[in-house]
Amino acid sequence: MPQQSKSSKRNNKKQNDRASSRRELSREILEEIREHYYKASDSKAGLEEFAKDVGTEKLHPRNRVTVMILGNHSSGKSSFVNWYCDDQKLRRTAVAIESKSFTLITHGKEKDKLDSLATIEAFPHIRDILDIKGMKEGLETVTSCSTSRHFEMVDFIDTPGLVDGNYSYSFDVNRVILELAEHVDLVLVFLDPQTGGLCNRTMTVVEEINKKYYEKMHVYITKIDILESAKDLMKVQGQVDQQLHPRLSKGTHGFETHAMFIPKNGRDVEGKKWLTDDLNEIDRLCEDIYKCIGQKVQKNLKALKKDCDDISALSKEMLKQDDLQTQKVRKLALYKYLTFACLWIILPLLTSLFCIEYFKDYVPDALLENEAYGSIKFVGEFIVDSGLPTKHHLYIFVGTFVLLFGLSKFAAMRHRSQSQKLLGKDRRSKLSKNLKSMETINTRYVEMHRKFIKSRIHEDTPLGYAKAADSSESVNVDQ
Ligand SMILES: Nc1nc2c(ncn2[C@@H]2O[C@H](COP(=O)(O)OP(=O)(O)OP(=O)(O)O)[C@@H](O)[C@H]2O)c(=O)[nH]1
Ligand SMILES: [Mg+2]
Fold first, then answer.
1. Res 4: pLDDT
2. CA of 92 to the centre of ligand 1 (A)
């Protein structure tokens, strides 16, 4: 027996070691992906800058999982954050309406508070919510240096408790929650046993989130330790299901509500024999958050690949268009020089030939007998002998001059305006450099993807799957 317990201890240790190395790898990959957006390995800039170079915008994906907790007032949202971070003073908890603003809780160097503008600076993805009236005062960030559970890789959004009736929020709370839901990885809906599914506002928000982001949403009946019996719990669950199910339009198959309470020293659950450990699904909730980290790695890898491909395609297209533009500009330059040559070389030459022919009597014989003049004098003769009245000769010259002058001016203007559309040497070399950096990122992407897959599957599983890492469609991250 003691031997068995020793081997099971060893197994546990092995499992823990594997879990922590997987976690470390996830953290490393998420961190590296972020780096590629800020600063590519062999370049001063990263994908965010490369995107700007091709006139588009790409934001780095968050390298941490974001979990939004919403639900009835006093359902234990803030208490859960405190419990997860193992810091009872992180969020204020009480029976009165306590959380009145949207608070991002993130890992930081020290415990601190940031206002809405600093919050948007740190979380640029959600900047649009500042446009909602009242949000400038309704958004803040709280930082904590807790390393409890997976907090270092998780951001929470603690939302104001939802109530019906006369209570008025200083912003459109439903709208803000819906906007935030787009950017988070997990939406936890907390329903307390007293109000359960009876808060109309909570149910409306749940209905809306279910329409768009049903796969992110998990519903928990909280504080079940205040109930007196398993029968009461079933009653509450029945009541919640009754209210909830008609509101759900997607993901109804297999949809479950879970139950939990926050284990707390001194909380009297001793006398409640019905409240067995397996009824409290808080560990499952932590597991859901943990699973999100793995999904986040895949999501971010996919985003990295896609953004890299998009920017590369745009850069290549820009260089291709620039090549075509260069050809066009060269042609225009040729037209410009041709008209210029006609105007300032050929036209004066013809004029002088004509003049020589016209004023033959005054021209020295030496010139008239010159061989060169002899071979081209037919031009002057042609004009003089053309039979046109003499004054028309002048019109022809003035007309030709005006036409050629206009043409050369037009060609010069076109040449200038089209040249301005060229990228220029610096921008071209920057784009080419960016393309090279993106090739390096792509190589890193394949390596990271392989490493990640290897950490998740058994070593004897054929790595044909890992080969799929080369294609962006390899892993379904939307599960
Ligand atoms: N018995 C019991 N009490 C809890 C549990 N979780 C929270 N509470 C208590 O419920 C009260 C409200 O908790 P909060 O965490 O402030 O709830 P909240 O959802 O953040 O409330 P608002 O921010 O006002 O919406 C506090 O007195 C907590 O101590 C639980 O699991 N069991
Ligand atoms: Mg709260």
1. 54
2. 9
